[in-house]
User: Fold this.
Amino acid sequence: MSLRAPLRTSIRAPRIAHRPRPLASLRARYATTSPSERQQQQQEARKHQPQVETFDKTARPGLYYPRPQRERDLPPLQSKWPAILALGVLGVSAWAVFMAFVANQEKLSSSVMQQIMTTLRESPELREVLGEAIRPEPVWWMNGDPWISGAIHIPGGNIDLSFRVKGHKGAGTLYFTSIRREKGQPFEVLRFKVIADDGTEVNISPSRPS
Assistant:
C-alpha cells in the first residue's frame, strides 16, 4: 500500500481572447448604413467632442475701451496765489473792522464820553441851535451806534474826539480836544465846540473831564 498522496492538478478555465473585429467587417457594416444614418452618427460624435476655438492673431489682449482722442490742448493750470492773496486781504480787512468796532465801543462807554454828553445837554446855547434831546447821531454801518473819531489816551495826557450830535431841531459835529501838560496836572480843554449843519458855531463852556 502506498502512502503517497495523489498529485493535484489545477484546472484553469480557458480565457476567451477579445480580438478586434477585422477591418473588413467594419467596412461591411459601414457600407450597410444609409447616408442619413452616417450623418446623424457624425453629428452625435461631434457633440461629445470638445469645442476647439481657433485664433488668427497672436494672443495679445486688446483695449477694453477706446482711448479718447484729444481735440484741443488742455488749458494751462492757473496759479493759486491770487486766491490766497484775496483770502488774506479779506481776513485782514475783517480783523481791522472788528478791532475798529471794539475801539469805538470802548470810547462810547468811557467816562470822558459820558461827561461830554452831560455838558452838551446842559448847555443853553446848544439847545437853542439843536433843540432838546441832544444825543450822538447813530450811523447805519455801525449797527445803530454813533461813530467816534479820534482817541482817548488818558495815561498819555491826550484826548481828541469828534462825532456827530443831533437834537429835535437840527444836527452838527462836535470837536473836543484836551491835553495834560505834566503828569499830575489836570487836563486843559483846548477846543470844545459844535458846528451845526447850517454853519452856526457854538462854543461850549469848558469842563474838565476826569
Notes: Residues 80 and 190 are 54 Å apart (CA to CA). The beta strands are 135-136, 149-153, 158-166, 171-179, 188-196, 201-203. The first helix runs from residue 23 to 32.
